[in-house]
Design brief:
The protein is an all-alpha fold. The protein is built from 5 helices and no strands.
């Protein structure tokens, strides 16, 4: 998992952590922040939702989640 690349992809797409939390159905940004910092493991389902929200290519997805 490449947490730096995830953060960069989020910022590149103009999303805040709050935006991501809302898109993923979290009640606040702390839930997403824990994912992005590696404090909480990201499930396959959540990684695929992040891929969709950030409109990641297959290559970008692999670079972030399959490292």
């Amino acid at each position: 998992m490449n947490f730096v690349a995830l953060k960069e992809a989020r910022k590149k797409n103009g999303f805040t952590q709050q935006d991501m939390a809302e898109a993923l159905g979290y009640s606040g940004k702390s839930g997403y922040s824990c994912l992005e910092s590696g404090k909480v493991k990201i499930s396959v389902d959540v990684s695929l939702k992040i891929k969709e929200v950030l409109n990641l290519t297959e290559s970008e997805y692999k670079d972030i989640f399959l490292q």
